[in-house]
Amino acid sequence: MTHTLHIVGGGLAGSEAAWQAAEAGIDVVIHEMRPQVGTFAHKTGDLAEMVCSNSFRSDDSDNNAVGLLHWEMRQAGGLIMAMGDAHRLPAGGALAVDREAFSAAVTERLHAHPRVTIKHGEITALPEDGHWIIATGPLTSSALGQAIAAETGSDALAFFDAIAPIVHADTIDMDVAWAQSRYDKGETEDERRAYLNCPMTKDEYEGFIDALLAADKTEFHEGETAGYFDGCLPIEVMAERGRETLRFGPMKPIGLTNAHKPDQKPYAVVQLRRDNKLGTLYNIVGFQTKMKYGAQTEVFKTIPGLQDAAFARLGGIHRNTFLNSPTLLDEQMRLRSRPHIRFAGQITGVEGYVESAAMGLLAARLAVAELRGQSLPPVPPTTAIGALVTHITGGAEAKSFQPMNVNFGLFPPLPEAKSGRRGRRERYPAYTARAKEDWQGWLQAGALAPA
C-alpha cells in the first residue's frame, strides 16, 4: 500500500480515525497544531484532550442511544472506547474517565503505532490533492476556518459553546453535600455514590437564580452572535428562559434523598461529578457558563456546600465551528466540491465526545476502502453510527441544521411500536437489539483486515 491518509486534528475524532486506518494497514499522518498553536479551551498538547466534561454519558447499550454508540465503537475495535474503559471512574450508569490519564494513553498508543506519524503544526489551507480527513473539531483555527468558508461559500460555520467549572473536592462541605447517584444507579457502591449533591430550599434556589441573572457576563466581539446548541446551554441562558428551567434541567431534585435530612425533599439539587481518578476534582454537572470569572466565584459560592469552594478551573465560552453538512457532504462524508477531502467529528455537526469519535471511526473506514479501490455498503440507518451519518449527510433540514447528539429520534421507526412514555420501555430495547444485529452485519460485510 503506497497511499497515505492525512488527518488534520488530533482530537477524539482524529485520533480514532488514525487508529482505525493504521490498524487496517494504512500509513497515517496526524497533523495537530497544538502545542505550537493553542486554543482557548485546550491546556496540553496531548491527543484526544477532553476540554468540556469528563463524561462519555450513559453506558447502557440496551436502553440508551449513547450507550448503544459505545457498544458499536467497541465492536469496531475503537481506540477511544478502549482507553475510556481503561481509565474509567465511578459515575453511576455513565462512563466517566480520568481525562489526563485518558488523553495520555491515547497519545502513547498512537505514537507507538508503526503506521502513525504525528506532525505538529497548523494546516491553514485546504489540500489540493492526496487523501485527507479534516477533524479539527469545534475549535478549528481561524485560518483553516476561513479556507473552509471560502470553499463552501457558507457563512454559518460558528456557534458558541460553554464549559463548566471544576471544584477541588476537599473544599466541598460534606456536612451539607452527600454522595449519591440519581436513583442509586450503579452496580457497585462506588457507582451508586459517584455524584456529590448540594441541596437547595426554595428560597435558596430563588436567590441563586437572582444572582445568576444579575451576574456580569462575557461580552461578544463585534460581528459575533450567540447561537447556542440546546444540549449545552449556559446556565444563565437557561435561567433567562424561565425561573424554573434549571430546576427541571441540571438542578432537578428527583431520584435523590438528602442523607443529612432524609425527611426533607430538596427544592433543587446541584450535582458534581468526579473528574479524575484520585477523586480530588469534581465538575459541576450541566453548569456551562459565560459569566465572568469574578461573578462565577460569587454566584457558585451561594450554592449550599460550595460556600468555601476553591476552583481548579472556572467556566468559559469559546467559538465552535461546524459545517452545514447536509448541503456540503456526500453520503461518504466527502466534501462535494473536493471529494479527496472527508470531514469527521464535531465539525460535521454532531455533538458530544463519542459522537465525534464515531464519525472519525466511520470516515476512516470509508477512506480505507476508497484507498483500496473498494466500497463499503451504506451503514444501516438503524444503527447509532448509521443514524448519525444519515442525519448529517441528508437526514437533517439544511436550513435549520444544528449540532446533534445521538438519540432514538434519529432512528427509523419500529413497525407497530407503542408511542408515549410507557412505550419507551419496549421501544428502546427493540431499537438497540435491531441496531446491534445490523451493526455486526455491516462490520462483517465491510471487514477491514490489515492489507
UniProtKB/TrEMBL annotation:
Gene Ontology BP terms: tRNA methylation; tRNA wobble uridine modification
Q: Does the keyword Methyltransferase apply?
A: yes
EC top class, as a word: transferase
Q: According to its UniProt record, where is this protein located?
A: Cytoplasm
Q: Could you state one GO cellular component term attached to this entry?
A: cytosol
Xref: SUPFAM superfamilies:
FAD/NAD(P)-binding domain (SSF51905)
Its Enzyme Commission number(s) read: 2.1.1.74
Q: Which residues form the MnmG N-terminal domain?
A: 5-374
Swiss-Prot/TrEMBL catalytic activity: uridine(54) in tRNA + (6R)-5,10-methylene-5,6,7,8-tetrahydrofolate + NADPH + H(+) = 5-methyluridine(54) in tRNA + (6S)-5,6,7,8-tetrahydrofolate + NADP(+); uridine(54) in tRNA + (6R)-5,10-methylene-5,6,7,8-tetrahydrofolate + NADH + H(+) = 5-methyluridine(54) in tRNA + (6S)-5,6,7,8-tetrahydrofolate + NAD(+)
Q: Summarize where FAD binds, as residue positions.
A: 9-14
Q: Name one GO molecular function term.
A: tRNA (uracil(54)-C5)-methyltransferase activity, 5,10-methylenetetrahydrofolate-dependent
Give one Pfam family, short name only.
Answer: GIDA
Which cofactor is recorded for it? FAD
User: What are the record keywords, sorted?
Assistant: Cytoplasm, FAD, Flavoprotein, Methyltransferase, NAD, NADP, Transferase, tRNA processing
Q: Which domain of life is it from?
A: Bacteria
Function description: Catalyzes the folate-dependent formation of 5-methyl-uridine at position 54 (M-5-U54) in all tRNAs.
Which family does the record claim for this protein? Belongs to the MnmG family. TrmFO subfamily.
| NCBIfam families, per database record | gid_trmFO, PRK05335.1
Which HAMAP family does this UniProt record tie to the protein?
Answer: TrmFO (MF_01037)
Indicate what this protein is called per its UniProt record: Methylenetetrahydrofolate--tRNA-(uracil-5-)-methyltransferase TrmFO
Protein's organism? Pseudoroseicyclus tamaricis
